[in-house]
Structure to design on (222 residues):
């Protein structure tokens, strides 16, 4: 299994609070991604990174920010959580642009 | 991003072959065809990918039409553990993003 760990695995938070999800990899892969998955919507790309300090937006980036200060960690921050951000969040990594992706086990976030 | 079309759901029986279709009529010459699957309560996992020629690995086979406008993922002998959502996606050669569609929910009957 690819060395990719998401933390926390489950979180319940209140509306309006900031939340940070962490994705940690031990593979030294260049590319890292954050997706959310909701019933009826499949996997939707939030943000991705193509190197340290290099990030870009995906399809559903509003309300989210990311940071990558070192190769192994990619953080997803919800500045002020809303109930519409209740979802399962998946992190993925790729070695380079022509290779397959490996996914983490997911973080289930509930905003109440 | 180039689009793929898959049936919403399919059903098959244990120990029989399964053919999962994917249409990608707008594929361009440098787009790779990737397949991933997602087992219940897990993250997606890579299955196979190809460009022009048919591909085989320990999990499955990928048959690509001559005009590349469609492909088929073949599970040679389905088991109950193959019940999952299967995603067919196009990856532009060198592209940074991976964009997923809705996938096909495969049910395996004992």
């Amino acid at each position: 299994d690819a060395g990719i760990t998401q933390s926390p695995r489950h979180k319940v938070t209140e509306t309006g609070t900031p939340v940070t999800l962490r994705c940690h990899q031990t593979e030294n892969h260049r590319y890292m991604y954050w997706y959310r998955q909701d019933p009826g919507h499949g996997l939707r790309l939030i943000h991705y990174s193509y190197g340290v300090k290099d990030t870009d937006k995906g399809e559903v980036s509003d309300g989210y920010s990311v940071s990558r200060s070192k190769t192994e960690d990619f953080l997803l921050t919800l500045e002020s959580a809303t109930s519409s951000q209740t979802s399962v969040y998946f992190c993925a990594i790729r070695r380079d642009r022509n290779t397959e992706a490996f996914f983490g086990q997911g973080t289930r976030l509930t905003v109440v | 991003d180039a689009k793929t079309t898959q049936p919403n759901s399919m059903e098959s029986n244990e120990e029989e072959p399964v053919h999962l279709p994917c249409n990608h009529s707008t594929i361009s010459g440098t787009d790779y065809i990737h397949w991933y699957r997602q087992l219940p309560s897990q993250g997606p996992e890579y299955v196979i990918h190809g460009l022009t020629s048919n591909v085989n690995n320990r999990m499955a086979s990928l048959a690509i039409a001559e005009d590349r406008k469609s492909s088929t993922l073949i599970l040679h002998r389905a088991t109950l553990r193959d019940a999952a959502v299967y995603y067919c996606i196009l990856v532009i050669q060198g592209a940074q993003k991976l964009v997923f569609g809705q996938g096909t929910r495969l049910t395996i009957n004992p």
